[in-house]
Each structure stands twice: as C-alpha cells, then as structure tokens.
Amino acid sequence: MPAKRQQRRSTNAAGQKKSAPKKGPKGAPKKGVKQGSAKGKKKPAKKGPAKKTTKTAKKGPPKKGGGQQGGPKSGPKKYGGGKSTGGPKKRPSRRAAPRISDQPGERLQKLLAAAGVASRRECEEFIREGRVQVDGEVVTELGTRVDLAEQDVHVDGEPLPKPKKAYFAVHKPNGVVSTANDPSGRPRVIDLLPPSLGRLYNVGRLDMASEGLILVTNDGELANRLTHPSHGVEKIYNVQVAGLPEPDVLKQLQKGVYFAEGKAKVVRAKIKSRRKQSSVLEIVLAEGRNREIRRMLAAVGHKVQRLVRVAVGPVRLGEMPEGSYRKLTPQEVKDLKKVAGM
C-alpha cells in the first residue's frame, strides 16, 4: 500500500510537471490574480493622452481669422481683419462736403438769417442737422461761405430766393484798393457802398494809385464776360505822363511791348493835350493785365503821373465826384450785356 501511494504521488508530480508549460505564454496572468485588477490596468490605457489630444484638437478653432470661432460668419481674412466685408468698401466721396469756405461770400448761417429763414441760432442748428444744401450737396460746417447770386441754396428742399441783380458805377479815388479782402486794412472800393446793398464785387481792378470808373455788381456771369479778353470789351483811360511823347511812341504802343508773360498792346492811343513838361494821352485797352499801362509807358520812356479810367464799354464816368457811386440805368445794363455777348 505504501508502495502504491508512493507510485501515485510520483505519477501525479510527473503529470504536473508536464502540464506546467501549457499555462500560456510568458506574461499571462497567474493563478490567484484577480481578473478585475487586470482590467483596471487596461482602463488607463484607454484614457491615455492620445485621446485627450484628439479631443482638444476638435474643440479648438483654427487660428486663422483673428481667433473667432469658425463657420461661414468669419470668412477669409481679406479686407477687415477676418470679418466678412462682402467686398472692398468704397471710400466716402470727398465732395460730400464741398469746400466753399475758401470762397468769397456771406457766412451761410448769416445769409439764411438775413433771408428770413429763422434766427441766426436756429439757422446754425439747421446746418448742423444737415437740412441745408449748397449746389445740391449737404453742408454741415458752420462758417461756410456762400455767394447766393452764383450758388443755389436749399433749406429742407425749398430753394432760397436769389437776390435781385444790382449794377453800380463807382468813382475810385487814389489810395483805395479794389481787392475783395485786404490784410492791411486799407480802404476798399466795396467800402464806398452801403452794406444794405448786399453782397457785391468789383468788375476788374485798378491799382491803388489809379483812379476812375469801376463797375460793381452781383451778376457773376456779366462780370466774367466783361473782364475776359476774348470778349474784347474796351476800357478808356486818360493818362498823364512825364515828357512829350513822339508819334513813334504811340505807334510802338499799338504795335506792342514784350513782357515776361507775353506781348501787351493798346487798341488805340492818341495825345489829348500837351504841357511844358507833361502830356495827357487817351489809351484804349481790350485787356486788363496788372499795371499794364504803367509798365508799357515805362518801357517806351515815359513815367505815368496820373491815370484815370473814364469808361468801361458803354458806361462813362462823367462828372461823378471821387468816392461816389450811382446805380446804372436799365439802358446801360442792356448795352453792357450786348457788348459782353449776353
């Protein structure tokens, strides 16, 4: 019996030794190790960083488009820093507010108040609110200067009545300037007329040392035509010069004298009277360059002592006292327009 038991034990031991290699490859779980612990080791692998990285990448928006979340709203970054613009924006027209402030004329709010639109303060509010148009453009700048005789003004779509055309003759004295604005504060031709006549301007100029007839009006078209050389409106001057000009001098004036800006000549020239040391000439011009007569006579050797303009087209100075003015007659206005081609 003992011998048989010993034989069985040896047989079992041998069988166990032979079946041991059948437990599986190296690294397989041993007996006594719970399967739950093995599963617990696999779960961290499923929650590994690779999956987290993938999720983060899906949540985050692309860096293009200035950090805004994607979708059709952001659009490509073409014009506005990633914002959809629908195409390039057009620049606002620079003519939306016309630059009239540098032009001569009345301040717009003053002009509106004088026309009876409203008080000065209310007119300023109208301008700020964009209710006033000048030549079809909205003007919102206070202090804008407007010439109502030449420009169209509308308030709330209603046209502002234009002033009645006015025409005057002025006898300009020596020492008075014919410019519209004088920084030195010297007396101007326009100051010889009362402000109640409204906005007026000179037709042409005379230098400060010259005297005589200047036309003043608010009719811009007529003024331009009277001064433009193409219309050939004649101006007559009585000119006292030093010395006794010879006939050849008068012919030279009619032939022409050359200056840096071109040739200048008179239409006619004749001697009206002579004295011992001076002469009075009648000179007719159809153009009006700066100090033209003085420069021409100096070029032929005769200094001007006095210069008086006595006519512009059909209008004559006559016996008007220095510094005075008068209203042109209807016939004079008609004749002026005729020579100006109107």
UniProtKB/TrEMBL annotation:
Its EC number is 5.4.99.-. One of its GO terms (biological process) is enzyme-directed rRNA pseudouridine synthesis. InterPro entries: PsdUridine_s_RsuA/RluB/E/F_cat, PsdUridine_synth_cat_dom_sf, PsdUridine_synth_RsuA/RluA, PsdUridine_synth_RsuA/RluB/E/F, PsdUridine_synth_RsuA/RluB_CS, RsuA_PseudoU_synthase, S4_RNA-bd, S4_RNA-bd_sf. SMART domains: S4. Pfam families: PseudoU_synth_2, S4. Residues 19-62, 88-97 have a biased composition (Basic residues). The keyword Isomerase applies. It is an enzyme of class 5 (isomerase). Gene3D superfamilies: Alpha-L RNA-binding motif, Pseudouridine synthase I, catalytic domain, N-terminal subdomain, RNA-binding S4 domain. PANTHER family: PSEUDOURIDINE SYNTHASE FAMILY PROTEIN-RELATED, RNA-BINDING S4 DOMAIN-CONTAINING PROTEIN. This is Pseudouridine synthase. It comes from Aeoliella straminimaris.
